[in-house]
Design a protein that fits this description.
nine-stranded mixed sheet, alpha+beta, Pseudouridine synthase, about 350 residues, four-stranded antiparallel sheet
Length: about 350
């Protein structure tokens, strides 16, 4: 038993950049050139999607002109890099973003392109667990060199946990159902949600979903992640975590993370289901049949599939007793891996 995120400061995450360093120690480069401004920020009580919308609003640009390499939770202190397609001077961008509540600009610079997933190597975590029924020594005894690379619950909606359900409705062409599920009036909506719901009624559900393709595509990705989690659970149960049809094995990169682009035989690279998924094993097929969809269904949202290691390594794990049932953890994980999943593994709450 433990309590996580009692305070935002209990969960600190810092993006590790592929070029070295991290978002928290990035340096401004006023002399850099390019059509995009990259900005490293410290955010508190902001999820990535909401902050991206607020950045677009403050800079008076379309939401599609704001991008990021990874999604971070609301109830946390997160250091993260955004890229913005804007003509504004980097210093002006920094000044405007610094006016957003609970946002601190760490650095800014211009670049020739968007930020992409490959620009982030992983994340460093500094996490405080409270009311623990275990000690730091217990954590270290439970530690292995890797853990099952499940998607964390945050992937499925931090509040309502229903994004995968929305994604399934989108794939089945049930746009009315998708909108109703995403904006359930019976639970009470915030101002942005209420505005979006009213917009959907004016536009019609299908047109609304297509006009907000980025938002609803995330829901389809959540469904894709749920299929992966269920398949991995079944394969661990059956002892079939080796390479199956269409899969391969990979090695580690310079950070020590499993890297699907590095040759090696250390980590099985599984397939994320999508329209171009090159093989559907018996586990995926059973799950897709249960949902009443196929890999071709993902064409509706242009979700093509992808790759994910079945296990992820744990880098630099350290656990310290802080007294009064408080345990502090530090570690680094490859991009796409979830600290909450690791913590449950370490304390035996799988």
């Amino acid at each position: 038993m433990y309590r996580l995120k009692a305070y935002p400061e209990d969960f600190v995450v810092d993006e590790m950049l592929a070029t070295g360093g991290s978002a928290s120690v990035a340096k401004s480069d006023p002399a850099a050139q390019g059509p995009f401004v990259w900005v490293a920020v410290k955010k508190v009580n902001w999820n990535t999607l909401d902050l991206a919308r607020e950045i677009a609003k403050r800079l008076r640009v379309g939401e599609k002109r704001v991008n990021y390499a990874g999604i971070k939770d609301r109830n946390a202190v997160a250091y993260q890099v955004f890229s913005i397609n804007t003509r504004e001077d980097g210093a002006a961008v920094s000044e405007k973003l610094s006016g957003i509540k609970d946002i601190e600009v760490m650095a800014f610079w211009r670049a020739a392109r968007w930020i992409k997933g490959e620009d982030m190597a992983g994340n460093m975590f500094d996490i405080t667990l409270r009311d623990c029924s275990f000690t730091a020594a217990d954590v270290m005894r439970n530690a292995a060199d890797r853990f099952p690379n499940y998607f964390g619950e945050q992937r499925f909606g931090s509040m309502r946990k229903n994004t995968a359900t929305v994604g399934l409705k989108v794939l089945k062409g049930d746009y009315e159902g998708a909108v109703s599920e995403y904006f359930p009036e019976e639970v009470g909506l915030d101002r942005w949600e209420e505005r979006m719901l009213q917009q959907s009624r004016k536009m019609g559900a299908e047109r609304f979903v297509r006009s907000n393709a980025r938002l609803f595509k995330l829901c389809v990705h959540a469904l894709q992640s749920l299929v992966f989690n269920r398949e991995l659970e079944m394969r661990i149960r059956d002892g079939e975590t080796g390479v199956l049809e269409g899969e391969y094995a990979c090695g580690r990169n310079k950070f020590g993370f499993a890297d699907i682009n590095v040759e090696g035989g250390e980590f099985t690279v599984g397939l994320l289901v999508g329209s171009e998924c090159r093989a559907v094993n018996k586990y995926k097929q059973a799950i897709l049949d249960e949902y009443g969809i196929s890999r071709e269904s993902f064409r509706r949202s242009d979700v093509r599939g992808g790759y994910r290691t079945l296990y992820a390594p744990i880098i630099g794990l350290d656990a310290v007793d802080m007294g009064n049932g408080v345990v502090r953890l530090k570690f680094a994980l490859q991009k796409g891996s979830y600290a909450t999943v690791l913590i449950d593994e370490l304390v035996g709450e799988k």
